[in-house]
Every structure is written in C-alpha cells, then in structure tokens.
Amino acid sequence: MTDTPRPPGHAVTPPRIVCPVTSRKIPSRRGVPGGRLHTDTQRELSPSPAMASYDTNPFADPVDVNPFQDPSVTQITTTSHGNLEEFNPFTENSRLTNPNQKTVPVQPVAPSQPAVLQPSVEQTPQSVAIAAQAGLLQQQEELDRKAAELDRKEQEMRNVNINLRQNNWPPLPSFCPIKPCFYQDFAADIPADYQRVCKMLYYLWMLHSFTLLLNLLACLAYFIANSSGGVDFGLSILWFFLFTPCAFVCWYRPIYKAFRTDSSFNFFAFFIIFFCQIAIYIIQSVGIPGWGDR
Fold it and tell me: Where do Polar residues bias regions lie (predicted)?
C-alpha cells in the first residue's frame, strides 16, 4: 500500500488505535518523531487505580494443585523404612523369618470310604401279623394296669367317704342306742347359691313339726277338760308321729338331694309331695270336728 501524496505544509496526523481495555483511540507510533507517544497519549495508556484489580485474566486456566505435593505427604514418602522387611505370606521363608506368626495345626483328614447300601429286608405277612399282635397285647396289658389302678383309687375314695361322711342327723347323744340315720351338712353338700333356700325349707319342716306338737298338747288339754275329746287326742298323736318323719323323708330330703346333686327327679318329687302337704295344712286349719285338730 502506497501513501497518498499530501500537500506541502500539511501536518501529519498519526492514525489512532482503539484500546481493548479502555475503548479509547490511541495514536499510532508511526509518524511520531522518535517513536514516542505524546504526553497525552501516555497519560491515556497508563491504567487507573480502579482498573488495577482487573489485571488478571478471568478466562485463564486455574492453577492445578497437586495434593501429593503437600509437605506432610512428601516427608513420609521420601523417608526410608529400613527397619521393615518385605513380607510375602505365600513363601516358605516368610514363615521361618516371622516368629510372631501363629500356625494353626491342620488335622489329618481320614480317608473317605465308599458308602455301602444295606439291602432292604421285606417283611412277610406273618411277621407283620406277629408284630401287630404283640402291640395289641402290650396295649391290653397297659389298659388292664390302668383299670386296676383306677379301681384301687375308687375303692380308697369310697372308704374315705364312708369314714368321713358319718350320719349326723338326728343329733342323738352317744349313749342312745339309736344312731343317726342321715348325713346333713349344708356347707359341704349344698352350693353357696342354694344354701339359704335349703335352710329355709329345713326351718319350715321344723315349724311344721312344732305345730303338730302344739296340736297334740291342745288335744290333750281338751281331752282332760272333756272326756268326749278322746278321738281328737288319739288322732293328734297319730298326726304328730306320722307327719313329722314323713314330711322329713318325703319332701325335705328330696329337695336336699336335688340341691346337692342337681337332680330333676328329686325336684319333681318335692313339688308333688309338698303340694299335697299344703292341701293337708289347709284342711287342718279349718278345724273339722273329730279330725284331731284344735
């Protein structure tokens, strides 16, 4: 490229270059005497204090830091370990040179023997029948032994019950030749829920007997006052000695047994006989002449 001729006396203006940092035009060195920039140009090129912090290139590669260049690591790796020996656990010499190693004794393995299959023995029908018969006989003996033991225990319990459950009613003195005929114990025989009812029926029987005794005494007094009352006196004696034990045996003892054993038959007998007893009470309460009632 050739320079364009300029007229004489024309001042040469140096070309300007745009600074990439400050975005200002910088005059070129060409055409400047001595190749130096003007003072204004140098002042423009000098960086300001605010731009000093942008000297480093943010797009430059970061400095690689080697972690193995740490002084503590390099000191250990460069130190010689002369007191340690290389140990190979797979060599024979290592076992000899390492006296601290404990060797585990190896137990000798017994030579394996081939398995021998025992021939299966098939049982004959006769042997099966004999074995079954022997088992049945053993079971029969065991059952007989258990049955004998149960009989013995039952007999012992029966003897104990006979000795313990001695008849205590009626309570008669020991010198009396007549012994008690019945056993009665509300706490032992009757459940707790029915003891009160059973005792009330017992007291009712006692009231019935006492009423018959009073009737006998009234007929006796009437017979003493009037000799024509002998029939009533005789019948009052009969009612007393007949109805007193019959009422005890016919309706009191059935209800006692019914509460003790929860027997429906005894309950049925009690209701039938006790209904008849109530009917007799009603007839005697009327006071029919000649019936032994006063």
Answer: 90-103
